[in-house]
Amino acid sequence: MKTDSPFKILVLALFLVGIGFLVGFGFQSRASQQANNGNGNGGAKATPTPAPAPVVRTMQAAPDATKLAITATFANSANAGIWILNLQTRQTTYSASPAGWQDYVVSWKDNATLLLERERIPRPAAEATGGMYEAPVSEGETREDQWSFVTPKLPRGDRLISGFYGTDGDLHLKTRSEPKAIYRVEGDAARKLDDSAFAYGQNRVVNGSLFVVRDLSPRDSRQALFRVQGGAARQISPPLEDVAWSYVAPSGKSFLTAREEVENWVWTLYEIGENGLKKVREAPIPLDVISVFWSPDEKRILGAAGERLWNIEMPLLRATPLGSRTDWSADDVAWIGNSAVAVASQGEIWRVDVPSGKTDSLWKFPREFWK
Questions:
Q1: What does the DSSP 8-state code read for residue 240?
Q2: Which of 183, 343, 360, 367 pairs with 44 at a CA distance of 20 to 30 A?
Q3: Model's pTM, two decimal places?
Q4: How far does Cα 118 stand from its chain's mean position?
């Protein structure tokens, strides 16, 4: 059997080592280049992941339409704050919420005072007190050291779910635990006006009358609209069957319900009279309308939170798209007078004229809040 000489074997071995070195060097060079480029796709640079936008939680315009109060969370909801946007100069002031707490703008009491609700975020928190506060707004800003805590101790130690003013300026509190209850704040005390064993829908206090959507009885899961006066509750609507949501207009003159069908909502508008409800109109409304916002004069409803904005004429219940944009997915909306709305979307506040749909960017959150 013939064997190769040691010299030939040595030459072949050196040749194979050299080939391996070249192949290995080429592979490592490409890998190194790809690593330096941050991408293994032909040396192209990777597109950085965009930082998440702040999420607007609540937004309310002052009655004189000169200021917009905004609350938002950022840094994956770990931080929160309040911004006051001057709608004329488009300048803002910022007040940070305590760590682990979220402040919500419930409404403006007048052009210089906010009603805020402070609620704990489920994470380690700074020392603070949850509840309702009245917060003065002076020279375009609100300072926590000037806030007034306006939440009296409730009789059963109930936890709040919200608060609201009546048309007479009195503060009312709605509780979270069952049976849910509505209280009127009277000085340092709270007087119960009404309660419900289970469901408790939207509430308004108009000229001393409390309008509530609640259970017919502890034994009946259906709901109805009640008017509460002088401690007595009187049902003023028929039982509401398969209703997804319902709203009493700010004036207390109209009542709107919605039930969901396969391709659209069916809205029903009622007129609230002294002795009950009168049906005005029923109409289909696009399912893209998720949240509803009455204009101050109640001649329109702005539909939002879906892909589009919708202008819904009242009392015709005629819905038309507001503008051509189809990627709004608005965090919140607030009317600015009767002819425009502020829309919070993707970290930016827009003014949208009604009914033209013309848009104008009012303000964008600074970069330090995108994280």
A1: B
A2: 367
A3: 0.84
A4: 15
